[in-house]
Design goal:
By secondary structure, the protein is α+β, with helices and mostly antiparallel strands. The chain is built from 16 helices and 44 strands. The protein folds into five domains: 28-148, Agglutinin, subunit A (Orthogonal Prism), CATH 2.90.10.10; 150-289, Agglutinin, subunit A (Orthogonal Prism); 332-445, Hepatocyte Growth Factor, CATH 3.50.4; 486-586, Phosphorylase Kinase, domain 1; 591-796, Orthogonal Bundle (Transferase(Phosphotransferase), domain 1), CATH 1.10.510.10. Strands 36-37-41-42-40-39-38 form a seven-stranded mixed sheet, sandwiched between helices. Strands 29-35-32-33-31 form a five-stranded antiparallel sheet, covered by helices on one side. A hairpin with a 5-residue loop joins β16 (174-184) and β17.
Length: 796
């Protein structure tokens, strides 16, 4: 037995050696004298885990970018770069010299860039698993690091100290400096600016945290929260955060992109319980500001999209467009804006050209701050004639009897659904280019193809060939019309909806066998549609529709154009004979009613995010979508919850589709008892404030996790939740509303704020209720809730 004693000792020594070996590999350093060369296959230094790499990426035919990127995902997304303004030619080197200097030189040794101030004292370099590249001196002190020299991106673990800034790239594939800046100023305010491009000087602010102090920093912590905090680590404001996803399972980045939007992105590291429903791609977690088109409104500069253009924002992405009669100046730089495709009106007094021009109407489009004359009250015909007779007037806006003339250049253009008026853009009648919409993404080659087409049309051979192709096309169509295929919407070109046959939906829902829910005007079934990206769908079969096929299709197309994180997405429809069905994305967690009132109580964070998400969805319907939509039936059953506990409003637009006098109530109103505003009963005008009222009731239900009306409670004074909330407000005992909720009892300031918001929303006079925009600002802390004493005076 004695001879066995050495083995544990040897095993311990072996484990110690292995441990030392692992540590050595995990902390592998880049020694003095090391270098990388810009070559076709790429040359880089990986981090120990391989998550990040530092080296060269080929950008152009013979242009290389010295950068850091995510190395384990196919996109190889760049998070830091140094020579976007001056790409390195093939054969260039980045080297850590024997004397400790770190520089990028071209193939003949000319310096392109160097990291200063460095030099004597640098011992080695390292690419860390955080995405930070460091030059380390004696005593393991970081002499220089990329985290202190950010470009357009900030990563988890990175801290921005005063003063610091991010500068956007010029375009998705051009890493030179762009037109937007994110600055942490000396006063502590974190501000988004447009710049006086191509210089780096700031132009005008379009978003800020509105917090001030001398000891602030911006921190992207490992939990996925991007916050402004003091030196004592107390959080002043949260800019972005993860929602019910573990940060350790994600790659993350927050980037000021070339379009001026600051986006927080996530990418799953692999498939697990928390990420299995996420796409294996970068997905947007948050955007700042919520609508960049509306926020940029400076007195100088081209706005969000450049001069003579207008901007549209779908909640995630910005798109830029030229008015009809205009075209993009430079396809490689959309921010240069648009130019006229016609000769401008002459100001020669001897020959008036007013009769040669006309107007293109553009509803909800406006160029604020371009006005040089205002007239009121006038009618639209007067406004048109005034602009026609003024050679300097290139456009006019008309809204409710007010006319404003505009001259060149037009700037700060935006699509604004809250703007009820229209723009009248002046164009020359005899210019054929005005017949084609001047979208900023059109390619100049189309005009060349048009000319070539005209030449070919003159050829009899071409006409014969065209006839043969047309006949073959018709025969092919007749042969395949009897085949069951999924068709894209035939009546709207800019909406990606699928037109299903009734037979397809019967098969997809297994004969409408699995009912998910029903209401007074529809039944919802679970279905499977293999041809859609997400197989599972919810199919809503409408029981009654009082409108023609054309009207139904028009309303479906309007709903199909809505795109927002907090709205249930319409995927398709069926309009076949008497069958009218809508196909929506499937929401795995069901309705908010199930989530709140059945099973385990949602966490405080989940409830707060659901409240804010629902409010943002309503704000989009009221103010930001193409045509204003009043929901008319906001209640827990019409708010659905997905896998990540995101709230999504459903049934919006059904009031338009159904055109009936009642839903599930017995009164001649739309809505559900307990959530209906008083103006329905008093025959007052119905505005978006009816949805505000309903949201106020819903918000109280979310806070208290109980139904608005509960006849099972012992105290009859507590049966109607909104009445009980008023009683608690008068007595100053908000804690009674959440007395059995230990989590909320520790956060009474937030409870009091949310209850007061709910009370403001449910005031009898709709004029006194806030708008949904104000509600969102109050919920998120960007706007103070009005003094409670005001409520007392209103009631008295």
């Amino acid at each position: 037995m004695a001879c066995e004693k050495p083995y544990p000792i040897l095993l311990s020594l072996l484990l110690a050696l292995l441990s030392h070996s692992v540590v050595s590999q995990a902390s592998k350093n880049i020694s003095l004298g090391s270098s990388l060369t810009a070559v076709e296959k790429g040359s880089f230094w990986p981090s120990p885990s391989g998550d990040f790499a530092f080296g060269f990426q080929k950008i152009e035919k013979d242009g290389f970018l010295l950068a850091i990127w995510f190395n384990k995902i196919p996109e190889k997304t760049v998070v830091w770069s140094v020579n976007g303004q001056n790409l390195a030619p093939k054969g260039s080197k980045v080297e850590l010299t024997s004397d400790g200097s770190f520089q990028l030189v071209d193939h003949i040794g000319k310096q392109i860039w160097s990291a200063n101030p460095i030099g004597f004292g640098v011992s080695y370099a390292a690419m860390l698993d955080t995405g930070n590249f460091v030059l380390v001196g004696q005593g393991s002190q970081n002499w220089w690091q990329t985290f202190d020299q950010p470009t357009d991106t900030i990563l988890p673990g990175q801290v921005l100290h005063q003063p610091a800034q991010l500068v956007s790239h010029f375009s998705p594939n051009n890493y030179s400096k762009g037109r937007f800046m994110f600055a942490l100023q000396d006063d502590g305010n974190f501000v988004l600016y447009t710049t006086d491009f191509p210089t780096d000087s700031v132009n005008s602010a379009y978003w800020s945290t509105q917090v001030f102090g001398s000891d602030f920093s911006v921190v992207f912590n490992q939990s996925g929260f991007l916050v402004v905090q003091r030196s004592n680590q107390s959080i002043i404001q949260t800019i972005s955060s993860l929602k019910d996803i573990s940060a350790q399972n994600l790659y993350q980045r927050a980037v000021l992109e070339y379009d001026g939007v600051f986006r927080h992105y996530i990418y799953p590291k692999g498939s697990n319980s928390s990420t299995r429903n996420l796409p294996m791609a970068w997905s947007i977690q948050s955007v700042t500001p919520s609508n960049i088109c509306m926020r940029i409104n400076g007195p100088t500069g081209g706005g969000a999209c450049g001069f003579n253009s207008y901007c549209n924002f779908d909640g995630k992405n910005k798109s830029c467009h030229c008015p009809i009669g205009y075209s993009i100046i430079d396809p490689n730089d959309v921010m240069k804006g648009c130019k006229q495709n016609f000769v401008l009106q002459s100001c020669d007094e001897t020959s008036s050209e007013a009769h040669l021009f006309d107007f293109i109407e553009m509803p909800h489009i406006n160029w604020p701050n371009c006005d040089y004359e205002h007239f009121k009250p006038v009618n639209e015909d007067w406004c048109r004639q005034a602009c026609l007779e003024d050679c300097l007037c290139v456009a006019a806006s008309f809204n409710d009897g007010a006319c404003s003339k505009k001259n060149l250049p037009l700037f700060n253009g935006r699509f604004d659904s809250s703007f009820p008026g229209k723009s009248l853009v002046k164009i020359r009648k005899d210019n054929s280019s005005t017949l084609v919409r001047g979208d900023i993404n059109q390619k100049n080659g189309k005009s060349k193809l048009f000319v070539i087409g005209l030449i070919l049309l003159g050829s009899s051979v071409f006409l014969i060939l065209l006839l043969v192709v047309a006949v073959c096309g018709v025969l092919y169509w007749f042969r395949h019309t009897d085949q069951r295929v999924t068709k894209t919407s035939r009546f709207v070109s800019n909406v990606n909806l699928v037109s299903f046959t009734y037979e397809e939906l019967l098969e997809g829902t297994n004969g409408v066998s699995e009912e998910l829910g029903h209401g007074g005007f529809s039944v919802v079934y679970k279905g499977v549609m293999p041809n859609l990206q997400k197989n599972f769908v919810a199919v809503k079969k409408l029981k009654m529709v009082d409108e023609s096929e054309k009207e139904f299709e028009a309303e479906v197309s309007a709903i199909g154009q809505t795109h927002h994180r907090n709205l249930v997405k319409l995927l398709g429809f069926c309009n076949e004979g008497e069958h009218r069905l809508l196909v929506y994305e499937f929401m795995s967690k069901g309705t908010l009613a199930n989530f709140l009132f059945e099973g385990k109580r949602p966490t405080r964070h989940q409830r707060m995010q659901i409240a804010i998400g629902t409010a943002k969805g309503l704000l989009y319907l009221h103010e930001e979508c193409t045509s204003q939509i009043i929901h008319c039936d906001i209640k827990p059953q019409n708010v659905l919850i997905d896998d990540s506990c995101t709230a999504k409003i459903s049934d919006f637009g059904l009031a338009k589709l159904l055109k009936i006098d009642q839903t599930v109530t017995t009164t001649a109103i739309r809505g559900t008892r307990g959530y209906v505003a008083s103006e329905w009963f008093k025959h007052k005008p119905i505005t978006t404030k009816v949805d505000v009222y309903s949201f106020g009731v819903l918000l109280l239900e979310i806070i208290c996790c109980r139904k608005n009306f509960d006849r099972n409670v012992e105290d009859e004074n507590k049966m109607v939740l909104i009445d009980w909330a008023w009683d608690c407000f008068h007595s100053g005992r908000f804690d009674l509303l959440v007395e059995d909720d230990e989590e909320l009892l520790t956060d009474m300031k937030r409870v009091e704020k949310y209850v007061l918001i709910s009370i403001w929303c449910t005031l009898e006079d709709p004029l006194l209720r806030p708008t949904m925009k104000q509600v969102v600002l109050m919920l998120e802390g960007f706007m103070d809730v009005p003094d409670p004493d005001v409520l007392e005076s209103i009631e008295s």
